[in-house]
Each structure stands twice: as C-alpha cells, then as structure tokens.
Amino acid sequence: MDVIKKPFGEMDGKAVESYTLKNDSGMEMTFITYGGAITKIITPDKNGVLENVVLGFDTLEQYVQHVHYYGALIGRVAGRIGKANYPSRGKKVELTSNDSGNHLHGGKIGFNRVIWAVEEASVEKEKVSVCLSYLSRDGEEGYPGNVKVDVTYSLTNSNELLIEYGAEPDCDTPINMTSHSYYNLSGNYKEDILSHRLQMKADWILELSSDKVPTGKFIPSEGTAFDFHDGQTIYEGMQSGQGEGYDHAFVLNKGNQGIVLSHEESGRAMTVETDQEAVVLYTGNHLTDDLLTGGARGREHLGLCLEAQGYPDAVNHPHFPSVMVKKGEVYKASTRYSFHVLNEQG
Fold this sequence. Notes:
Elements: E1 2-11, E2 14-22, E3 28-32, E4 38-44, E5 50-52, H1 60-65, E6 73-74, E7 80-81, E8 85-88, E9 91-94, E10 103-104, E11 117-123, E12 127-136, E13 147-156, E14 160-169, E15 173-174, E16 178-179, E17 197-199, E18 204-208, E19 214-220, E20 232-233, H2 234-239, E21 247-251, E22 259-263, E23 268-274, E24 278-282, E25 305-309, E26 324-325, E27 331-341, H3 342-345
Antiparallel strand pairs: 1-2, 2-3, 3-4, 4-5, 6-16, 7-10, 8-9, 11-12, 12-13, 13-14, 14-27, 15-26, 17-20, 17-22, 18-19, 18-21, 21-24, 22-23, 23-27, 24-25
C-alpha cells in the first residue's frame, strides 16, 4: 500500500498536485487536487493486464480548458436546477445560470473548478486513504452560507474504491455531491461503451423536460429502454427506444444489491454500492475529440457515468427527498466501487 505525490501544474500561482493510491494487488487510482478529479483507475482484465478504465487528461491545461467534468467532484448540488433558482422561506434564491438558463453541477465555478486541500494521507494494512477539504464561501455561485466540505478517497486491498463525502454548513443550504468519472472497462479506450452490460434495480426514472430538468413525475422503467433489472447492454437499450443515449436519473430500489457494469471481452466488472437514492446514467452523448490520456481521441459514448446522488432539482420539488442541509446538521454520503473480473464473481 502506498501514496505517491507528484506536481501536476500551477493555477493562479497555486500548485496543483497529483496523488496516486496503490494497493498490494497492483490496482492504482490517481487524482489531482484541481476539482479533486480522478484521472486514472488502473485495474486488471481477465488475463491480469493492467489498464486505465476511466477517461482523463494528461495536463492541467486540458482540465481547465474543457468542461466534461472528467472524474471531478461535483457540488454544491449535482445535476440541473431548473431556471437556476429555488424557493426558500418565501424568497427565491438565484443561482448561477450555466446550462441554457438552468444551473448545472454547481455552476460555472463549481467544486470541479477549484483547488482542493489535502488534509491527510494514511496507509493502513488493508487500505490507503487521502482526505481532501474545501471551504465553499457564502454566495459562491449564488448559494447561501459557508460550507466546510471534505471528501475521502480510499483504495482497499480488495480492489475497492470508496468515496466518502462530508459537509457542514453555517446556514440552511442545499448539498448533493457526486463523482463524475467516465468509466470504460475495455481498458485504455480500446472501444466505446456500447457493448458494456449494465444491471441496475430501479423501478422508476425521473421524467425530464426538453431541457433535461426533472418535471416532478416518475416513469416506470419496466419494459422500456430504462429497464436494466435483468441487465442489458447500452447498445440494446439505445436500440429499444433511447437512441441518442442516456442522461437520466434512476430511482434505486430499496435494498438493491448494487449496480453492476461489465465488459465481456476484457472480463472486467464493477459493482457500485451507494447510500444515495438515485444514480444518473450518462453515456457520454456529447463528448468531443479532445486528446485523452495516452494520446487517445475522445468521441461520443467513449465513457459512461454512474453518478450516485440525491434527486436532481429536488429543491424545486417538495415531494422529492430533500437535499437541504440545515445549520448544525452534517451532510454525509458514500459510494463504493468494487472492481473484479467476471470469472471470479460472474
């Protein structure tokens, strides 16, 4: 087990660093302090070949120039907030508009575009961890109150990546964080994600308006392109009525045993377990040909996101589970990503 720190660049006179977490099985996870972005996850395929399974850039300049949210921490609120505002105590809170009149992923300068501080790195017998922190100040992107935020990345000897989120505001404010990694289990971008198979127990999805903001209604997934109960490939789902790809919030069934993403040819599989109510499946519908890690070219559907979070736009739908955190309360969330090969666990 080890943590390796290296310089990654400089922004506004501040150093940006990369941290690589290694376990005893050969798995590695690297992130940078800009946006807390995960740049690489190195895992073995069925033959033991170690390759990168997330989309990322090689330089800080690329992360600053392009806003695909590659691997970034998202907040204060993930997803879209309709018309970039929400009601609070009889008044309207106006947020930064950065998505066709709506507020997306925390605004123009969300958690993905700030430099996080590293508070602690620890190496234990069965896991290695790094804790990041950030102070989101009152008025940032329109949000009220100061919020102390911390995120801990942990890599275990069981090839698990655990992301734990914490936040404490000094007044009532919405908080709904997630990680925006794009996964591609083929390894080193050898192919797109259309052949990836996804199994997810979600009886409902959130209905979206034409600008991808939840309407407040629920749509049953059974028998539709959104039915992943028994597993289907992304291509099969798109062919059955979701031709442009997915960018939808799935309401996870209570007591679900985790989401499983797999790629038959490489033999890689990833199980996602979370304490959050929803997962947004985004299939990289608008990715461009930016130069990725190792010189590969980006293109649509080259990676997919499984963004564990509370319901998007919950601040404007009182019947959704609330994402408001009151003064004195502590926001907590966690998601575990377990990597294995199919002939081990099926």
